[in-house]
Please model this.
Amino acid sequence: MFQKEVYLQRRAALKSKVNSGILLFMGNEDSPMNYKDNAYHFRQDSTFLYYFGINEPSLGAIIDLDADKTILFGNEMGIDDIVWMGRQKTLKEKSIDAGLTEVQPLDKLDDYLQKAVEKKQQVHFLPPYRAENKIKLSHWLNIPIAQLKEKASLTFIKAVVAQRSIKGAEEIVELNRAAALSADIHLMVMQQARPGMYERELAAKIEGAALATGGNIAYPVILTVRGEILHNHYHGNQLLDGQMVLNDSGVETALGYAGDLTRTFPVGKKFTAEQKDIYDVVLKAYTDAKNMLAPGVRYLDVHLTSCKTLAQGLKDIGLMKGNVDDAVAAGAHAMFFQCGTGHMMGLDVHDMEDLGEQYVGYTDDLLKNTTQFGLKSLRLGKALETGYVLTVEPGVYIIPELIDRWKAENQFSEYINYDKLEQFRHFSGIRVEDDFLITETGSTMLGKHLAITTDEVEAVRAEAY
Ligand code: GLY
Model:
């Protein structure tokens, strides 16, 4: 945990943003794999972690703004828990570490909320994403599960998003560490990959190394020679000379902060000429995007710039044609880049996505309402502010099924050179990604430099085996 003053200050800042009612914080429950006592690795709810810092299951908390009370609800360990899990700090001790003075048994939360409902006190809650919390909320507040999302408190959501979006100094230390540890692991993978290995051997090294940091992986590892599959979690392919490995993975620190990096490198020692050409296009899109990062700049414009750089580069290679601005405005580049250039990061790899992309990445004046393929997957569009942490991660992904579909529909034939594209049908995908903090004057990359140009990557691969 951070020092208790951090949590006291965070809660005080939140209280000043909401006038009345009860703010309800739902901790997460253990999630059983196959029976109750055999649970998946526990992950606390990020908003709960942010305001209370206590990383254990079966907790709830309220800030009663009308009564000016903050109460943690949870149960102390019984003798059976101690026998099986060992003596740990008591909940009372943990609550003191979080700057709290009042702890009540978990079942008292039910009573507290039922009384609040009876006296028509407003209970502000955030959109639940776990089934257990949906059931609990529905029971406590008498709201059908299907209506919980729409009945969540917009005031609470907006206050939390505003606060969690601007990273504090203590968070930046953690995010820097997460990115640096992630870079170390990426370098290790780039050094240890060999033709003939299976993807799962490298994925296992990443998971092991992340655990060895004292943290964990921040999201399921994407380690694949089929880099065109955006979230490819299959690790059963053998690495063959001539292919590329796309590694999108990151460390979550013990305090819950994420790193999110991607590198693409040749299975052999060198990129082919074709791979190098497209890599350089992706790297230019990355560089153009990162050079724009500064307070006041809309990330939507960063994204569109990176799309135009990609489209121009692909035109130079002969895969696209026509006017680049028109092609991007029409969405034709999405044949090659089907997602957004980046997203907010923090306690979640896609920070606060549970609270709603509209509130995290957009504003009332910039609604997330496009249905355009590609653009609809941009999680962040709004103007950047000092203290935001985000990713820059352009890529080129050549998806055979998408070629066939668009070609059959004669989509964008004025912008896409389908004949040339056929030669690249099995190219796979390339992505490069780093994490950035928005500063008063621009941005700074988090973590440490990790080989990114084709020369740098090939230099690492030259030493690899
Ligand atoms: N790194 C995985 C993602 O951003 O979706």
